[in-house]
Amino acid sequence: MRSYSLFTILSLCLAIFLVDFAAFYWLKSITDLLDSNILKYSIHILFWFFTFGLIAAIIILKLKLDSITPKRKQLLISSLYGLTISSFIPKIIFIIVISILFVTNYAITDKESLLIIPLLGLFAGFLPFFVIAYGVFKAIYNFKIHEHILSFSHLPEAFDGLKIVQISDLHLGSFNHRFHILDRAIVKINQLQPDLIFFTGDLVNNYAWELRGWKKSFRHLSAKKGMYAVLGNHDYGDYSVWESAEAKQKNFEGITNFFKDNNFKLLLNDSEILEIDNQQLAIVGVENWGNPPFKQYGDLQTALFRAENTPFKILLSHDPSHWSEEVLHETDIALTLSGHTHGMQAGVSFGKKEWSPIKYKYKHWAGLYQENGQYLYVNRGLGWMGFPGRLGMRPEITCITLQKSEKNY
For residue 270, is it within any domain? Predict the structure, then answer.
């Protein structure tokens, strides 16, 4: 909430009040059907108690934000975020549906409308509430494996069948030290028996202390040919105010050392060359590179220096915006792996088609993209940030198998 001005926060609170005021107008049409005045007024009191309680909590948190410990701050912000979404969206839908029903009074008589219209409106409001509740309590850690086979004519034969597992955007602080949950994902990863494990950034929300206790889980990860990682925008400590540059640097070193302590090769604008039977494949990793307001720590040309003469290159770059800006048509990188977007943690699937509002911000936001024989894969993230749930956008483990072919598909 630090990134939002007090005016923005007050505007949000006003919007919450206006939506609740409109919802209460229609709620009364339902409670008026009740015979018990005690029950009726109890519902009214509870309704406004929640409304003013939520508004007060948001304002107090904004005013007290600087004095709250970072760990408690993360928990409070995510909790209020979840409460606001789970209240705001169902009420808006309730208002829209019941207003349309009363205006059109479609296919029912006035007498019937006294009961049917309010109940239909109530159902329309409760349905999204239950969907959001499912996203918060169930889908958020319902890990899904996305498997793909990618064919390349210039893939060295020694790497034909190479199996890559990509994970991204863990945001370990959001797990709140529930180690057993991530352990379930680690079991799924190891069952895939990967040759390589790639992590494409955002290990934490902001702080190195979020990593306490996680070494035991990470040391269960296993890959035949190695594990590699890059940093994401949240791994630099840029979303906090530090007492000094030294404190921020110490936090950064705590995060980078975590990778080294857990057998991950952290690529900071650098490359690693894998060699099998005198044939080579390059793993290139850049620091975070994003369009403003995200900072551009990444230096692709520096990262490519050691891999210049390697015919097949895989790039790890946290932000998918980097692919269209500096990779596509500008390099001979065959495959780029990114994360960052989380698929907005919300979307709708229609068969093989998927839609999310995040597509209006990011051209490449989830899944596989191909252009000019070059591929980009955007992982939907394994953890969460902000809204403590996932709606139609399950946390992802990506499994990509590379295949030698006569031509690219």
Answer: yes
